[in-house]
Amino acid sequence: MEIRRGEIYFVNLNPVKGHEQAGRRPVLVLSVDEINNLPLVVTVVVGTKGENIVRDYPTNVRVPPEESGLPIETLFLCFQIRSIDKKRFLEKPAGKVSNRTLEKIECAVRFCLGL
């Protein structure tokens, strides 16, 4: 399966530890396609239901369903970055974000990492 930057997939993130996001979740592919095309891991930002977090923080990016293609508003937690094996990607992409939203996510990730 070809995995592309900016696409959103539902993947099972279990097993996890501590405060990591668990279960079947939307993830947004952050790694560049040159990496995604290799037999390595894919770096993602984990999402959650927008209704779960009512306050906005500079570490999160809220994406409406009209843009993402997902059925509900999704909040991407840019401090929850994971590199996951391609074997976790069992389904076709559920959606995709615009370049503008991807830039917002990149900015939030840089903020979280102090870059």
Description of the molecule:
The chain is an alpha+beta fold and 115 residues long. Helices cover 20% and strands 34% of the residues. The chain has helices at residues 33-36, 65-68, 99-113, and strands spanning 7-12, 24-29, 41-49, 60-63, 74-85, 95-96. The longest helix has 15 residues, at 99-113.
CATH class: Mainly Beta
Spatial strand order of the main sheet? 4-5-3-2-1-6
Structural class: alpha+beta
Shape: globular
Strand count: 6
Strand fraction equals: 25-35%
For the record, give the distance between the C-alpha atoms at the N and C termini, rounded to a whole number.
32 Å
CATH second-level architecture: Roll
Portion of residues in helices?
A: 10-25%
Strand count, sense and closure of the main sheet?
6 strands, antiparallel
Number of domains: 1
* CATH topology call: SH3 type barrels
| Oligomeric category | single chain
Backbone CA Rg: 13 Å
Mean pLDDT: 94
Q: Spans of 5+ residues with little confidence (pLDDT < 50)?
A: none
Number of helices: 3
Question: Can you write the helix and strand succession as a string?
Answer: EEHEEHEEH
